[in-house]
Design brief:
It is a single chain. With 245 residues, this protein is of the alpha/beta class. The protein has a single domain, classed as Alpha/Beta hydrolase fold, catalytic domain (Rossmann fold, 3-Layer(aba) Sandwich), CATH 3.40.50. The protein is 36% helix and 20% strand. The protein has seven helices and eight strands. It has an eight-stranded mixed β-sheet, sandwiched between helices. Strand 7, helix 6 and strand 8 form a beta-alpha-beta unit. The longest helix has 19 residues. The protein is globular and about 45 Å long. The chain starts with a strand and ends with a helix.
């Protein structure tokens, strides 16, 4: 792993680049972090995906907030006051439109890396990153060949920025894994997303895992080890089938 700095429209974004062992070049994967931000639990996901044979770029989407220490989701997201403070300091500065602007710089960076195989890439995201991954597939359809969203929220809502409204632009293969009892991605949203992707003839699959919202990272209060492994059994074959034909 190495740390890199990527110049964006709004400043300089720190990121982590993970490379596997073996011969280059490798297909690239862009990973969008979840709401708690950069910390070991999300970095471990990037490292494991890299070991499967991918150059993985994990940008710190909260770079606009300045330096910060890793947060503990079990503390921050169970205390209403701390949760609101976290939202104001970090998440409000990483709105989808801002991150989509950043994503152009992330994709440009990947294109210049000699270790990266030329051509479209894969994108994966968790929680807020799951929404960003789907938005990216619709925003950069010629540069993203496959995307996966795990316990993403707000994927099909009544808002102009809802990802499902970009369905007609998506060329990537799409995989969406939702949680049970998830107010962020309800059964109604699942149906709306299913309808939008089907109408747009997007190659897609939407599943519901038997786990709560946020189940993948090991430091989340609802972490589900069995379903986290289930996520790997879908993610890696999905990417391999598209990026390693």
């Amino acid at each position: 792993m190495k740390t890199v700095e990527i110049k964006t429209r709004d400043g300089v974004c720190a990121a982590y680049a993970y490379t596997p062992e073996g011969r280059t070049p490798w297909p690239a994967a862009l990973m969008f972090m979840d709401g708690p931000g950069m910390r070991p639990a999300i970095q471990e996901l990037a490292e494991r995906l890299s070991r499967a044979g991918y150059y993985v770029l994990l940008p710190d989407l909260f770079y606009r907030s300045g330096p910060y220490a890793p947060v503990d989701p079990k503390v921050v997201f169970t205390d209403p006051v701390l949760r609101e403070q976290h939202r104001e300091r970090f998440m409000d500065l990483a709105k989808p439109a801002a991150v989509m602007s950043d994503t152009a710089a992330f994709l440009d960076f990947l294109e210049t890396q000699p270790e990266v195989k030329p051509g479209p890439i894969g994108v994966v995201g968790y929680c807020m990153g799951g929404r960003l991954a789907l938005l990216a597939a619709g925003t950069y359809p010629d540069r993203i060949a496959v995307m996966a969203s795990y316990h993403g929220g707000g994927l099909a809502v009544e808002a102009p920025s809802s990802p499902h409204l970009l369905a007609s632009r998506i060329k990537a293969k799409v995989y969406v894994a939702g949680a049970i009892e998830d107010k962020n991605f309800t059964d109604e949203q699942k149906a709306a997303l299913e309808a939008a992707l089907t109408e747009a003839r997007v190659d897609h699959r939407i599943e519901t895992y038997q786990a709560k919202h946020g189940w993948v990272p090991r430091d989340k209060p609802v972490h589900n080890p069995a379903e986290a492994e289930h996520h790997w059994r879908t993610l890696i074959p999905l990417f391999d089938g598209v990026l390693k034909p």
